[in-house]
Amino acid sequence: MVQKKRKLGSKGEPEKNYDLDFFKLYYSFIIVGFHLYNSVSQPSNGHLIGGNSAVSYYLLVSGMLLFASFDRREKIGMLTPGRFFIHRYKRFFFAVAVAYLYAFILRRCIIGNMTLKKLPSYLASDIWEILLVKMNGMNNNNGFMNSPVWTISSIFLVGCVFWCFLYTNKRLFLNLIVPLSLIIGFGVATHLESGSYPVWMGITTAGTLRAWNLMGLGYYCYALAAHIRDLKLSKVGRIAITVAELLCHAVALVCMENWNARNFRWTCELFFCIAAAIGFSGQSLVSEWLRHLPFVRFLANFSLGVYLVHRPLLSLFEYCFGAENIYVKKWLFLAVLLVATVLFQIAVFSFEKLCNVISRGCKKAFCTAETHQD
Questions:
Q1: Per-residue DSSP letters for 7-68?
Q2: Alpha-carbon gap, residue 16 to 189, rounded angstroms
Q3: So where are the chain's domains?
Q4: φ and ψ at 14, to 5 degrees?
Q5: Is there a contact between 50 and 258 (Cβ–Cβ < 8 Å)?
Q6: Are 25 and 302 in contact (CB under 8 A)?
Q7: Residue 3 three-state SS
Q8: Which of the residues 79, 160, 247, 303 could staple to 83 if both were Cys, CB 3.0 to 4.6 A apart?
């Protein structure tokens, strides 16, 4: 018995891969655990001390999906860099804008005792966060009001640059620029002073360099996934490769639970690469196991919601209960987080629909008939 080729859905897109969606949600909760047990306001209590490495899985998968999208677009119709920018921006903007409003209410209004006098100063800084470009260097080592947005901003910026390179000269980019930039990028990380390494990992311009490195590494994961996909595996072979994928995630979890040193972070990234390639290949049985669950199609959006919502909510819990009591209230926090994430998803959906209605109304009112047809 051999593995069938993955089917294509509408618009030439492959069937949904629930494996990657599930583990993105899984690593979202690892990041929640890291912030819960290692609050900025309190020292680590010994759990998930390297949990911030879970962000690397997001970055790797984002790179893989970008390269896969470009290959698919070569077959069904290419997006110019400008069209890709608009498509990518719309994909992220609604969630980030709603997350900003949510964080603004919790952190600026409730916790920060915001006044009208402070509002212009806040907005002058926060506007770049909402517009997804704060990680281009203008943040100058200043944190985000909703700190997880740095990842979205970096993924957006690096993705746009990657697409421009691919569109202009794919062979030059993949065969020269990507490997050369990875050598330089990881070399920079290696030779940073240990005291500066948190800056490299943290909310700085170096975060975008980190996104470049890992999204670029995603190309090699994507290529590995293609080789795995072409293997004619028996049922036993698919079980074995599924076990290998789960073991990679287990080893990464052990590393994140116990260590936060640079070499252990890179060990996590190594196992993330293998696990993501297996999951993306479609040979793992995890996606088939998940396919029959009723809520599975919401996993990707829910993981993004958990990631964007949890940090401001944690700040509210610190404000209400004290940082030293946060982990004592962990089950209450998780329950509130799940409810807040559902409400967040409803708000994002409603905001996007509202913007689409306004956009169509403006086109109808202010543009010519030729514009409507376009």
A1: PB-GGGPBPP-HHHHHHHHHHHHHHHHHHHHS-TTS---SSSTTGGGGHHHHHHHHHHHHHH
A2: 35
A3: 10-373
A4: -70, 160
A5: yes
A6: yes
A7: coil
A8: 79
